[in-house]
Give the backbone structure.
Amino acid sequence: MMLVPHACVNAAAGRLFSKPVAAFAAGVVSHAILDLVPHKDVSAHKAEGLLVLIMLGLIGTSCGLKSPAFWCAMGGVLPDVEQVLPWTDPKRGRHRWFPTHNRPFHSLQVPWAPEYRVRLLAQTGVSMMALVAATYRCRPAGSG
Ligand SMILES: [Zn+2]
C-alpha cells in the first residue's frame, strides 16, 4: 500500500480510540491489514515520505500530538520505515521483519480476479476522504 493511505485511513480510525497506546497498537495491525489488500505501489520513497510528513503534521496540529488519531497514524506509518533501511533490504539478501512486507503476504490476489489491484488514484481518493474525516472538528485535548 502507498504510505499516504496508511497515514490517513489510520488517523480517521484512530478517532475511535480514547488511549493513544491502544490507537498505536491498532495502527500497526491496520498496516498489516491494508498491506493484504490487492494494491499497486509507487517506488517514489522520498516523495511519499515527504507527503506523509506533511499529513502527520496536519493530523498532529489538528488533533494534537497526544491524540489517538495522531498515534494511530504513526502506528500505520512506522512499519514502512523498514522499506528504506539497508539492513532489511531483500536486494542485499536480508529479510523484512514485518510479515506483510514479504511476498506471500503482500498484496493478496483476488481468486476470481487475479489481476485486480486497487489503483493509485483510488488510494489517493480514499486517503483524502479519510484525512477530512480525521481532522474534521478534531481539536487537541484541552484547547477550546
Ligand atoms: Zn507496509
Remarks:
- The chain is about 50% helix and 0% strand.
